[in-house]
UniProtKB/TrEMBL annotation:
Its cofactor is a divalent metal cation. Signal peptide: none annotated. One of its GO terms (cellular component) is mitochondrion. Keywords: Acyltransferase, Metal-binding, Mitochondrion, Transferase, Transit peptide, tRNA processing. This is Glycoprotease 1. The gene is LOC116205948. Required for the formation of a threonylcarbamoyl group on adenosine at position 37 (t(6)A37) in mitochondrial tRNAs that read codons beginning with adenine. Probably involved in the transfer of the threonylcarbamoyl moiety of threonylcarbamoyl-AMP (TC-AMP) to the N6 group of A37. Involved in mitochondrial genome maintenance. It is found in: Mitochondrion. Homodimer. It catalyses: L-threonylcarbamoyladenylate + adenosine(37) in tRNA = N(6)-L-threonylcarbamoyladenosine(37) in tRNA + AMP + H(+). Binds 1 divalent metal cation per subunit. GO terms for biological process: tRNA threonylcarbamoyladenosine modification. Its main location: mitochondrion. Belongs to the KAE1 / TsaD family.
Length: 463
């Protein structure tokens, strides 16, 4: 199956800059159908893309990025990272020695509070208003000019297409004007790899739990660009469940739902306990929360700060119960994932926990107990690097740039009808056989090939 997939991918690999060669011809695909002659569009590639994905099991990859010739020892790289995948506009400048020269984040907290979550069109407009200032502030705080950059890295997926486009457009404009290479970055890989900036002795392989508003992922990181998906969310992610629960309880959403729910939980039934895999489900728990709110006759139109003592206690009780059950679900899945991962890679020593929900101290404390029972070490980036940020994008750009995975500078004057290659639904790794979910498989329409499958195919073509 892998060989047939490789053949289907091979026609596109020559247009991808995933192998250690400098300044390859930049990929442009013109749309010239009869109906579109008057409105020609250019499709621009700033990251890997293929037409299908491959399926893997526990066997070791035949080829690994570590076998590639690195283009540089990376000692003097300076990379600008730009992140606009969801509701934060972020930019940062990072050196390849791990020094963070600057970090700037513009939050959309007021919009979150107003709409009770992310409104894509409003989020796009908010990004567009501040992106120039955020990037310039990052450069100014780093005390460098655009000409001093080695490359520009930008998130191209997964995320909201409208939001991703703002960051990609800014990155390409800047890279084009100053003739800088550009690196397209996978958002979830960036969350995972930022741990290697924080703890530079962290070596592959390691296990990763990525938990955020839109994602729950358990990933075995075998090497740079080589990931096995052990588990994922089959419906709602934990961060989305936190946000919805906080909204239904009438809590302050300006810092998102997670920080608003902090109380210790009561014992209730754990979701999906009968499923012996590593997948996540929070839809049922959300239903339980709504039923509990209705049974206690809580009027969420009344802000928490104006509620009675009895009403406040009821809300806190529900919030505490929700958090305990939500995190217990994480604990159970992580324990099983550690067992699976150690069967595949017995040398694993670390569990990396990253993503916005990883800044929750209760989550960290509970998962620390899990890894101690398994004789592993927990690695958590500081809270400022758990939520969406430019540092993780810049660092991931550095890691891939060292391996020669980047695009040459875009044209300085790209046409107005450019269609950017964005990946709103882009898997990070290939599914592990035992972790496959039939429920999840029904939701795979319009999903790009995984980052892992594309890199494996490009490496096979080299050899």
């Amino acid at each position: 199956m892998a060989s047939s997939t490789f053949l289907s991918l091979s026609s596109t690999i020559s247009r991808l800059h995933l192998y250690p060669k400098l300044w390859l011809p930049f990929a442009l695909t013109s749309v010239n159908s009869p109906r579109q002659k008057a409105h020609q569009q250019l499709r621009l590639m700033c990251s890997p893309l293929g037409s299908s994905s491959i399926h893997i099991s526990a066997s070791k990859p035949a080829l690994s990025p570590s076998h590639c010739r690195a283009i540089s020892n990376g000692d003097d790289l300076v990379v600008l990272g730009i992140e606009t995948s969801c509701d934060d506009t972020a930019a940062a400048v990072v050196r390849s020695n791990g020094e963070i020269l600057s970090q700037v984040v513009s939050s959309q907290a007021d919009l979150l509070a107003q709409y009770g979550g992310v409104a894509p069109k409003m989020a796009e407009e908010a990004h567009a208003k501040v992106i120039d200032k955020v990037v310039q502030d990052a450069l100014d705080k780093a005390k460098i000019a655009e000409t001093d950059l080695s490359a520009v890295a930008v998130t191209i997926g997964p995320g909201l297409s409208l939001c991703l486009r703002v960051g990609v457009q800014k990155a390409r404009n800047l890279a084009g004007r100053f003739t800088k290479p550009i690196v397209g970055v996978h958002h979830m890989e960036a969350h995972a790899l930022v741990a290697r900036l924080v703890k530079q002795e962290l070596e592959f392989p390691f296990l990763v739990l990525l938990i955020s508003g839109g994602h729950n992922l358990l990933i075995l990181a075998r090497d740079l660009g080589q990931y096995v998906q052990l588990g994922t969310a089959i419906d709602d992610a934990i961060g989305e469940a936190y946000d919805k629960t906080a909204k239904w309880l009438g809590l302050d959403m300006r810092r998102s739902g997670g920080p608003a729910i902090e109380e210790l939980a009561r014992e209730v039934q754990t979701p999906m306990k009968q499923h012996k895999d590593c997948n996540f489900s929070y839809a049922g728990l959300k239903t339980q929360v709504r039923l509990a709110i209705e049974s206690k006759k809580i009027n969420v139109e009344i802000p928490l700060s104006f509620s009675s003592v009895e009403d406040r206690c009821s809300r806190a009780d529900i919030a505490a119960s929700f958090q305990r059950v939500a995190v217990l679900h994480l604990e159970e899945r992580c324990e099983r994932a550690i067992d699976w991962a150690m069967n595949i890679e017995p040398s694993i020593k670390h569990l990396v926990v990253s993503g916005g929900v990883a800044s929750n101290q209760y989550v960290r404390a509970r998962l620390d107990e899990v890894v101690k029972r398994k004789s592993l070490q927990l690695v958590c980036p500081p809270p400022s690097l758990c939520t969406d940020n430019g540092v993780m994008v810049a660092w991931t750009g550095i890691e891939h740039f060292r391996m020669g995975r980047f695009d040459p500078p875009p044209p300085a004057d790209e046409p107005e009808d450019v269609v950017y290659d964005l990946r709103p639904r882009w898997p990070l790794g290939e599914e592990y056989d035992k972790g496959r979910s039939e429920a999840r498989s029904l939701r795979r329409a319009r999903v790009h090939p995984s980052l892992t499958s594309i890199i494996q195919a490009s490496l096979q073509q080299q050899h």
